[in-house]
Amino acid sequence: TRYDKGLAKSRKGFGAKINALLANFRRVDEDFFEELEETLIEADVGFETAMKISDELQDEVKLRNAKSKSDVSDAIIERLVDIYENEGQDEDNTLHFASEGPTVFLFVGVNGVGKTTTIGKLAHRYQQEGKKVLLAAGDTFRAGAIEQLAEWGKRVGVDVVTKPEKSDPAAVVYDAVIKAKKEDYDILLVDTAGRLQNKVNLMKELDKIKRVITRELPDAPQEVLLALDATTGQNALTQAKQFKEVTDVTGIVLTKLDGTARGGIVLAIRNELHLPVKLVGLGEKMDDLRDFSPEEFVYGLFK
Ligand code: GDP
Predict the structure, then answer these.
(1) Is the ipTM above a cut-off of 0.85?
(2) How does DSSP assign 6-59, residue by residue?
(3) Cα of 117 from ligand 1 centre, angstroms
(4) What is the arithmetic mean of pLDDT over 211-218?
(5) Is the shortest distance between the CB of 234 and ligand 1 below 6 Å?
(6) Is there an atom of ligand 1 within 6 Å of 281 CB?
(7) What is the distance of C-alpha 173 from the center of its chain?
(8) What is the tens place of the pLDDT at every residue in 67-104?
Protein backbone atom coordinates (compact mmCIF):
# COMPACT_ATOMS: atom_id res chain seq x y z
CA THR A 1 0.00 0.00 0.00
CA ARG A 2 0.97 3.66 -0.04
CA TYR A 3 1.96 3.35 3.60
CA ASP A 4 4.45 0.49 3.20
CA LYS A 5 7.61 2.24 4.21
CA GLY A 6 6.18 4.76 6.62
CA LEU A 7 4.32 2.24 8.76
CA ALA A 8 7.21 -0.19 9.20
CA LYS A 9 7.71 0.71 12.87
CA SER A 10 4.04 0.55 13.77
CA ARG A 11 3.70 -2.70 11.90
CA LYS A 12 6.54 -4.18 13.96
CA GLY A 13 5.11 -2.70 17.15
CA PHE A 14 1.35 -2.29 17.27
CA GLY A 15 0.55 -4.58 14.34
CA ALA A 16 2.85 -7.38 15.46
CA LYS A 17 1.42 -7.30 18.98
CA ILE A 18 -2.12 -7.73 17.76
CA ASN A 19 -0.98 -10.46 15.42
CA ALA A 20 0.84 -12.19 18.29
CA LEU A 21 -2.27 -11.97 20.43
CA LEU A 22 -4.24 -13.63 17.66
CA ALA A 23 -1.53 -16.24 17.07
CA ASN A 24 -1.82 -17.36 20.70
CA PHE A 25 -5.56 -17.21 20.53
CA ARG A 26 -7.36 -20.12 22.17
CA ARG A 27 -10.80 -18.75 22.77
CA VAL A 28 -12.54 -15.45 23.27
CA ASP A 29 -12.67 -14.99 27.01
CA GLU A 30 -12.02 -12.25 29.52
CA ASP A 31 -8.26 -12.74 29.30
CA PHE A 32 -8.33 -12.22 25.59
CA PHE A 33 -10.11 -8.89 25.84
CA GLU A 34 -7.92 -7.75 28.71
CA GLU A 35 -4.83 -8.39 26.64
CA LEU A 36 -6.37 -6.70 23.66
CA GLU A 37 -7.14 -3.61 25.74
CA GLU A 38 -3.57 -3.51 27.04
CA THR A 39 -2.16 -3.82 23.55
CA LEU A 40 -4.35 -1.01 22.28
CA ILE A 41 -3.45 1.30 25.15
CA GLU A 42 0.26 0.60 24.67
CA ALA A 43 -0.17 1.58 21.03
CA ASP A 44 -1.47 5.06 21.99
CA VAL A 45 -5.07 4.24 21.13
CA GLY A 46 -5.93 5.78 24.49
CA PHE A 47 -7.91 4.33 27.37
CA GLU A 48 -11.34 5.54 26.34
CA THR A 49 -11.00 4.43 22.73
CA ALA A 50 -9.45 1.09 23.69
CA MET A 51 -12.39 0.32 26.00
CA LYS A 52 -14.85 1.28 23.34
CA ILE A 53 -13.21 -0.95 20.75
CA SER A 54 -13.04 -3.80 23.21
CA ASP A 55 -16.69 -3.46 24.29
CA GLU A 56 -17.96 -3.28 20.76
CA LEU A 57 -15.81 -6.19 19.77
CA GLN A 58 -17.23 -8.28 22.60
CA ASP A 59 -20.74 -7.59 21.35
CA GLU A 60 -19.80 -8.38 17.83
CA VAL A 61 -18.00 -11.59 18.67
CA LYS A 62 -21.14 -12.76 20.47
CA LEU A 63 -23.41 -11.65 17.68
CA ARG A 64 -21.41 -13.37 15.00
CA ASN A 65 -20.63 -16.32 17.19
CA ALA A 66 -17.00 -15.84 16.22
CA LYS A 67 -14.76 -18.61 17.44
CA SER A 68 -11.83 -19.02 15.11
CA LYS A 69 -8.73 -16.90 14.93
CA SER A 70 -9.68 -15.53 11.55
CA ASP A 71 -13.22 -14.61 12.67
CA VAL A 72 -11.81 -12.61 15.52
CA SER A 73 -9.07 -11.08 13.43
CA ASP A 74 -11.61 -9.94 10.84
CA ALA A 75 -13.80 -8.49 13.55
CA ILE A 76 -10.90 -6.52 15.03
CA ILE A 77 -9.85 -5.07 11.69
CA GLU A 78 -13.42 -4.14 10.81
CA ARG A 79 -13.88 -2.47 14.18
CA LEU A 80 -10.74 -0.37 13.70
CA VAL A 81 -11.80 0.76 10.25
CA ASP A 82 -15.33 1.41 11.53
CA ILE A 83 -14.05 3.77 14.19
CA TYR A 84 -13.29 5.97 11.23
CA GLU A 85 -16.09 5.33 8.89
CA ASN A 86 -19.11 5.15 11.14
CA GLU A 87 -18.31 7.59 13.90
CA GLY A 88 -20.43 10.61 13.29
CA GLN A 89 -21.08 12.67 10.24
CA ASP A 90 -17.84 14.56 9.93
CA GLU A 91 -15.65 11.79 8.59
CA ASP A 92 -14.78 13.73 5.46
CA ASN A 93 -11.05 13.24 5.16
CA THR A 94 -10.62 15.01 1.85
CA LEU A 95 -9.16 18.48 1.40
CA HIS A 96 -11.48 21.21 0.15
CA PHE A 97 -10.70 23.66 -2.62
CA ALA A 98 -12.18 26.95 -3.72
CA SER A 99 -14.53 26.66 -6.69
CA GLU A 100 -13.16 29.96 -7.93
CA GLY A 101 -10.04 31.98 -7.11
CA PRO A 102 -7.23 31.02 -4.78
CA THR A 103 -7.66 28.25 -2.22
CA VAL A 104 -6.13 28.98 1.19
CA PHE A 105 -4.96 26.42 3.73
CA LEU A 106 -3.95 27.70 7.15
CA PHE A 107 -1.53 25.53 9.18
CA VAL A 108 -1.58 25.62 12.96
CA GLY A 109 0.22 23.60 15.64
CA VAL A 110 2.96 23.99 18.23
CA ASN A 111 6.64 24.36 17.36
CA GLY A 112 8.41 21.35 15.99
CA VAL A 113 5.39 19.27 15.04
CA GLY A 114 6.13 19.59 11.33
CA LYS A 115 4.02 22.45 9.97
CA THR A 116 6.73 23.96 7.80
CA THR A 117 7.77 20.58 6.46
CA THR A 118 4.17 19.67 5.64
CA ILE A 119 3.71 22.95 3.77
CA GLY A 120 6.87 22.20 1.78
CA LYS A 121 5.61 18.73 0.92
CA LEU A 122 2.15 19.97 -0.11
CA ALA A 123 3.71 22.77 -2.17
CA HIS A 124 5.65 20.10 -3.99
CA ARG A 125 2.52 18.03 -4.57
CA TYR A 126 0.50 20.90 -6.03
CA GLN A 127 3.43 22.23 -8.00
CA GLN A 128 3.81 18.79 -9.57
CA GLU A 129 0.11 18.87 -10.45
CA GLY A 130 0.74 22.05 -12.40
CA LYS A 131 -0.87 24.41 -9.91
CA LYS A 132 0.45 27.87 -9.14
CA VAL A 133 1.49 27.74 -5.49
CA LEU A 134 2.26 30.54 -3.04
CA LEU A 135 3.57 30.19 0.52
CA ALA A 136 3.18 32.73 3.33
CA ALA A 137 5.80 32.72 6.10
CA GLY A 138 3.38 33.60 8.88
CA ASP A 139 5.50 32.06 11.62
CA THR A 140 7.42 35.26 12.30
CA PHE A 141 8.08 34.22 15.89
CA ARG A 142 10.24 31.10 15.82
CA ALA A 143 13.84 31.89 14.93
CA GLY A 144 14.66 30.36 11.57
CA ALA A 145 11.07 29.55 10.58
CA ILE A 146 10.98 32.15 7.80
CA GLU A 147 14.25 30.99 6.31
CA GLN A 148 13.17 27.39 6.55
CA LEU A 149 10.01 28.07 4.58
CA ALA A 150 11.94 30.15 2.04
CA GLU A 151 14.33 27.21 1.69
CA TRP A 152 11.42 24.86 0.96
CA GLY A 153 10.12 27.34 -1.59
CA LYS A 154 13.43 27.25 -3.40
CA ARG A 155 13.70 23.49 -3.19
CA VAL A 156 10.29 22.82 -4.72
CA GLY A 157 10.26 25.90 -6.95
CA VAL A 158 7.37 27.96 -5.59
CA ASP A 159 7.11 31.58 -4.44
CA VAL A 160 7.21 32.61 -0.79
CA VAL A 161 5.98 35.83 0.81
CA THR A 162 8.09 36.88 3.80
CA LYS A 163 8.62 39.79 6.16
CA PRO A 164 11.35 40.20 8.78
CA GLU A 165 11.24 38.24 12.03
CA LYS A 166 8.79 39.54 14.64
CA SER A 167 6.62 41.25 12.00
CA ASP A 168 2.87 40.99 12.45
CA PRO A 169 1.92 37.62 10.93
CA ALA A 170 -1.37 39.11 9.70
CA ALA A 171 0.63 41.62 7.64
CA VAL A 172 2.53 38.78 5.95
CA VAL A 173 -0.73 36.98 5.26
CA TYR A 174 -2.32 40.17 3.92
CA ASP A 175 0.51 40.65 1.41
CA ALA A 176 0.26 37.01 0.40
CA VAL A 177 -3.51 37.09 -0.09
CA ILE A 178 -3.29 40.23 -2.23
CA LYS A 179 -0.53 38.69 -4.31
CA ALA A 180 -2.43 35.43 -4.69
CA LYS A 181 -5.51 37.27 -5.94
CA LYS A 182 -3.70 39.66 -8.23
CA GLU A 183 -1.41 37.09 -9.79
CA ASP A 184 -3.92 34.24 -10.04
CA TYR A 185 -2.33 31.74 -7.74
CA ASP A 186 -4.29 28.50 -7.35
CA ILE A 187 -3.30 27.81 -3.79
CA LEU A 188 -1.86 29.69 -0.84
CA LEU A 189 -0.37 27.75 2.06
CA VAL A 190 0.00 29.78 5.25
CA ASP A 191 2.43 28.93 8.05
CA THR A 192 1.68 30.27 11.55
CA ALA A 193 3.34 30.30 14.95
CA GLY A 194 1.62 28.03 17.46
CA ARG A 195 2.26 29.40 20.90
CA LEU A 196 -0.15 27.51 23.13
CA GLN A 197 1.51 29.07 26.21
CA ASN A 198 -0.70 32.08 25.70
CA LYS A 199 -4.04 30.88 24.43
CA VAL A 200 -5.71 34.28 24.41
CA ASN A 201 -2.96 35.79 22.28
CA LEU A 202 -2.92 32.81 19.97
CA MET A 203 -6.66 33.03 19.54
CA LYS A 204 -6.45 36.73 18.73
CA GLU A 205 -3.58 36.19 16.34
CA LEU A 206 -5.35 33.42 14.44
CA ASP A 207 -8.60 35.39 14.36
CA LYS A 208 -6.80 38.35 12.91
CA ILE A 209 -5.12 36.21 10.27
CA LYS A 210 -8.46 34.68 9.35
CA ARG A 211 -10.15 38.08 9.12
CA VAL A 212 -7.43 39.34 6.81
CA ILE A 213 -7.98 36.34 4.57
CA THR A 214 -11.78 36.44 4.63
CA ARG A 215 -11.94 40.12 3.83
CA GLU A 216 -10.28 39.43 0.48
CA LEU A 217 -11.48 35.89 -0.12
CA PRO A 218 -14.87 35.32 1.58
CA ASP A 219 -14.81 31.50 1.27
CA ALA A 220 -11.25 31.13 2.53
CA PRO A 221 -9.52 29.59 4.36
CA GLN A 222 -10.91 26.34 2.96
CA GLU A 223 -8.93 24.35 5.53
CA VAL A 224 -7.45 25.04 8.95
CA LEU A 225 -5.11 22.11 9.39
CA LEU A 226 -3.71 21.25 12.78
CA ALA A 227 -0.36 19.47 12.66
CA LEU A 228 0.21 16.88 15.40
CA ASP A 229 3.37 14.86 16.00
CA ALA A 230 2.41 11.17 16.17
CA THR A 231 5.48 10.36 18.29
CA THR A 232 4.13 12.46 21.16
CA GLY A 233 1.19 10.13 21.73
CA GLN A 234 -1.37 11.34 24.23
CA ASN A 235 0.29 14.77 24.34
CA ALA A 236 -0.82 15.27 20.78
CA LEU A 237 -4.41 14.71 21.89
CA THR A 238 -4.07 17.30 24.63
CA GLN A 239 -2.67 19.82 22.15
CA ALA A 240 -5.50 19.14 19.76
CA LYS A 241 -8.10 19.73 22.47
CA GLN A 242 -6.47 23.06 23.26
CA PHE A 243 -6.30 24.13 19.63
CA LYS A 244 -9.94 23.25 19.16
CA GLU A 245 -10.75 25.79 21.84
CA VAL A 246 -8.70 28.45 20.09
CA THR A 247 -9.82 28.09 16.48
CA ASP A 248 -12.04 26.06 14.14
CA VAL A 249 -9.85 23.21 13.03
CA THR A 250 -11.07 21.42 9.88
CA GLY A 251 -8.63 18.55 9.88
CA ILE A 252 -5.46 16.99 11.25
CA VAL A 253 -2.08 16.48 9.66
CA LEU A 254 -0.52 13.63 11.59
CA THR A 255 3.24 13.96 11.13
CA LYS A 256 6.13 11.59 11.93
CA LEU A 257 3.96 8.50 11.78
CA ASP A 258 7.12 6.83 10.46
CA GLY A 259 8.78 7.57 13.81
CA THR A 260 6.41 5.70 16.10
CA ALA A 261 5.73 2.02 16.73
CA ARG A 262 2.37 2.98 18.24
CA GLY A 263 0.25 4.07 15.30
CA GLY A 264 -2.88 3.80 17.45
CA ILE A 265 -2.92 7.56 17.97
CA VAL A 266 -4.78 7.77 14.65
CA LEU A 267 -7.73 5.95 16.20
CA ALA A 268 -7.70 8.08 19.34
CA ILE A 269 -7.86 11.26 17.29
CA ARG A 270 -10.92 10.05 15.47
CA ASN A 271 -12.75 8.76 18.46
CA GLU A 272 -11.88 11.40 21.04
CA LEU A 273 -11.56 14.55 18.96
CA HIS A 274 -14.06 13.90 16.18
CA LEU A 275 -11.68 15.50 13.73
CA PRO A 276 -10.71 13.82 10.48
CA VAL A 277 -7.05 13.05 9.81
CA LYS A 278 -6.60 14.44 6.30
CA LEU A 279 -2.87 14.02 5.74
CA VAL A 280 -0.14 11.88 7.22
CA GLY A 281 3.61 12.55 7.26
CA LEU A 282 5.75 9.49 6.73
CA GLY A 283 9.23 11.01 6.58
CA GLU A 284 11.23 14.18 6.12
CA LYS A 285 11.43 14.25 2.34
CA MET A 286 9.13 16.08 -0.04
CA ASP A 287 7.44 12.89 -1.22
CA ASP A 288 6.71 11.64 2.28
CA LEU A 289 3.17 12.95 2.59
CA ARG A 290 0.01 10.92 1.98
CA ASP A 291 -3.70 11.51 1.98
CA PHE A 292 -5.16 9.56 4.83
CA SER A 293 -7.15 6.43 4.11
CA PRO A 294 -8.42 4.55 7.19
CA GLU A 295 -8.62 1.26 5.36
CA GLU A 296 -5.14 1.41 3.91
CA PHE A 297 -3.87 2.50 7.28
CA VAL A 298 -5.43 -0.35 9.23
CA TYR A 299 -4.56 -2.98 6.64
CA GLY A 300 -1.06 -1.48 6.46
CA LEU A 301 -0.67 -2.10 10.18
CA PHE A 302 -1.60 -5.75 10.16
CA LYS A 303 -0.50 -7.13 6.85
P1 GDP B 1 7.27 23.25 12.70
O2 GDP B 1 8.00 23.93 13.81
O3 GDP B 1 5.92 22.79 13.12
O4 GDP B 1 7.23 24.06 11.45
O5 GDP B 1 8.09 21.89 12.40
P6 GDP B 1 9.14 21.56 11.23
O7 GDP B 1 8.45 21.48 9.93
O8 GDP B 1 10.29 22.46 11.34
O9 GDP B 1 9.56 20.07 11.61
C10 GDP B 1 10.31 19.75 12.78
C11 GDP B 1 11.18 18.52 12.50
O12 GDP B 1 10.37 17.39 12.23
C13 GDP B 1 12.08 18.68 11.28
O14 GDP B 1 13.34 18.14 11.58
C15 GDP B 1 11.38 17.85 10.20
O16 GDP B 1 12.29 17.34 9.26
C17 GDP B 1 10.77 16.75 11.02
N18 GDP B 1 9.56 16.17 10.37
C19 GDP B 1 8.46 16.82 9.92
N20 GDP B 1 7.56 15.93 9.42
C21 GDP B 1 8.10 14.70 9.56
C22 GDP B 1 7.64 13.36 9.24
O23 GDP B 1 6.52 13.11 8.74
N24 GDP B 1 8.49 12.33 9.56
C25 GDP B 1 9.72 12.55 10.14
N26 GDP B 1 10.47 11.48 10.41
N27 GDP B 1 10.17 13.78 10.44
C28 GDP B 1 9.38 14.85 10.16
Answers:
(1) yes
(2) TTHHHIIIIIHHHHHHHHT----SHHHHHHHHHHHHHTT--HHHHHHHHHHHHH
(3) 5
(4) 97
(5) no
(6) yes
(7) 23
(8) 888 888 888 888 888 877 665 445 678 999 999 999 99
